[in-house]
Each structure stands twice: as C-alpha cells, then as structure tokens.
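Figure 3 (text version): structure tokens given as input.
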C-alpha cells in the first residue's frame, strides 16, 4: 500500500474508483466546506472518501461484513495487523479455504474483520460474491504473497476514520438526515448491460434498473434540500435518460472492459452532478 502520509483503500472492490480519482476529484464541488457532512452511501473501498478525508463523514454500505471491518479497523488497527501477519505467514491454497470456512461460520469480531481483509486480498480478482445462504464463495486467487495492509497503513486508516460514522444501511435510509450544504457521493452498482446479466454481486440483493430510477428520484429530492449531489454511473442511454432533464451529465475520458457471462463490453463512465463544475 501507500508510503505517503495519506490513508488509502485497504480492499480491492469491484467498481472501486481508486484508478479514477485523478478524474473524479475535478468534479467535487468547490464550495463544499468542511463544516458540512460528506456522505458516501455506497462506500465499497471508499476511494473518494480516502482521497478527500473530510472532517465530518457519514459512510455506509449494505454489505454488513464490510462495515464491520471498517469499524474494527477504526477501533483496533494494531490487533488486526497482528492477525494479518499470521495470515501472511500461513498463506497458501489450503490455508485460504480453511480460513474461508472459518469466516463463513464466524460471528462479527476483530478476528472476522482480519479474515475479511485476508480473503479479499487473496481471493480471485478481489470479487465479493456470496451464495444464497450469504456465504462468501470466491476461489483462491494465487496471489502470493497477498498485498495485505501493513500496521502503518492500518493506523493511517484508523486515523482517517476517527471522525466518520460507519453504518450498515441501505442507501435510501442513509441519506434521510442529509442537510443543506452536505455533499453526497453516490457510486451505486452499475446496471445490467442487458436485461438479465449482472456484473456485480456485492450482497445477496441485486441493484436493478428500477433501483436506478429510484436513486435518480432520491437525488432530485436531495437537490430540493439544497444538498450537493455527485453520482458515478455507466454511460448507457438508460442512465442518461434518468438524469438528463435536471442534472449536469459529464462523460469521463475513460472506458472500462466489463466481463459478463463470458462476453466483454466496453463501457464509458458518467459523472452526474446537481451543481456546475
Ligand atoms: C460500485 S461499489 C462502490 C465502490 C466505491 N466507490 C469504491 O471506490 O470502492 C457499490 C457498493 O454499493 C453497495 N450496495 C449495493 N446495493 C446497495 C444498497 N441498496 N444500499 C447501499 N449500498 C449498496 C455494494 O455493497 C458496493 O460496496
């Protein structure tokens, strides 16, 4: 991980924006002031949060294990670091599957939070995928040694999180108390590229086209409350149609390859804002 003073994301996450930060940061509202809250209701690896490290933040995600992991790092970075050192020493294919079983049968704890990080960094492509029972089922990724965060990294992350509230919530409930002047960054799972295929499996629940329409409606409500809203999404006609009348829609100069059901699609990135950039 990073050797500079700033904390950085500690997990790999599908849809994570760390490689896009150099573009995203140009769309952050210039008049967002530290006295207001920063909201990130689809937190994932929190790339923009770690880049901005705002004074006040309300961070949330519908993935319960993810939020428990953040809270464990916030309170106990050094204990997590000790567990990660043990995982690093023992890492191999057999050990990974043994730890995956242990993870799936454990209750929330610091041990489980460390397992979350170990599995994320050692699994295939950093995918978070659970079966119908909610059990994490991603195979070993043969990344040896897995790039686990160091004690120093975890201390920086804990410090960056010290003034943040970290909550397990659906995004709709997470933005109920947003106030005028607060800045909300929505980075939802992107919509299926065709009617049925999904390329994100973060939790048992999926985020479908109706959910995207509902998110656009909520963004309009927040605009009425005079909040600053920025949204990342895929550059597809359906998404543009949801926002084109009341928002500024910008195309980022980047495209990504997305693999769905064995097919590869090239998708552009949109940034949608309710303020001028
Ligand atoms: C595209 S990822 C966010 C990536 C993040 N911006 C980053 O840089 O890593 C979308 C996130 O939304 C979460 N999510 C999916 N459905 C949700 C919902 N209904 N409410 C809140 N979070 C949700 C997923 O668990 C996932 O972490």
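Below: residues designed for each position.
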């Amino acid at each position: 991980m990073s050797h500079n003073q700033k904390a950085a994301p500690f997990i790999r996450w599908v849809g994570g924006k760390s490689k896009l930060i150099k573009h995203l940061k140009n769309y952050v509202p210039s008049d967002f002031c530290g006295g207001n809250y920063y909201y990130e209701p689809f937190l994932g690896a929190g790339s923009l949060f770690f880049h901005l490290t705002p004074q006040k933040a309300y961070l949330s995600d519908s993935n319960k294990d993810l939020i428990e992991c953040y809270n464990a790092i916030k309170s106990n970075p050094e204990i997590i670091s000790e567990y990660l050192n043990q995982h690093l020493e023992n890492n191999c294919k057999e050990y990974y599957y043994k730890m995956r079983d242990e993870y799936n049968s454990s209750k929330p704890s610091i041990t489980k939070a460390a397992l979350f990080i170990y599995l994320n960094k050692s699994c295939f492509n950093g995918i978070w995928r659970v079966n119908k029972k909610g059990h994490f089922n991603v195979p070993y990724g043969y990344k040896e040694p897995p790039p686990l965060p160091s004690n120093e990294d975890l201390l920086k992350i804990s410090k960056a999180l010290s003034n943040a509230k970290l909550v397990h919530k659906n995004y709709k409930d997470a933005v109920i108390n947003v106030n005028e002047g607060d800045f909300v960054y929505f980075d939802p799972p992107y919509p299926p590229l065709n009617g049925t295929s999904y390329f994100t499996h973060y939790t048992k629940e999926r985020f479908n086209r109706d959910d995207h329409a509902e998110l656009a409606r909520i963004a309009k409500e927040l605009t009425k409350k005079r909040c600053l809203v920025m949204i990342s999404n895929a550059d597809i006609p359906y998404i543009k149609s949801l926002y084109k009348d009341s928002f500024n829609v910008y195309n980022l100069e980047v495209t990504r390859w997305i693999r769905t059901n064995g097919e590869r699609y090239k998708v552009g990135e949109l940034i949608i804002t309710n303020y001028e950039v």
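The first strand starts at residue 38 and ends at 40.
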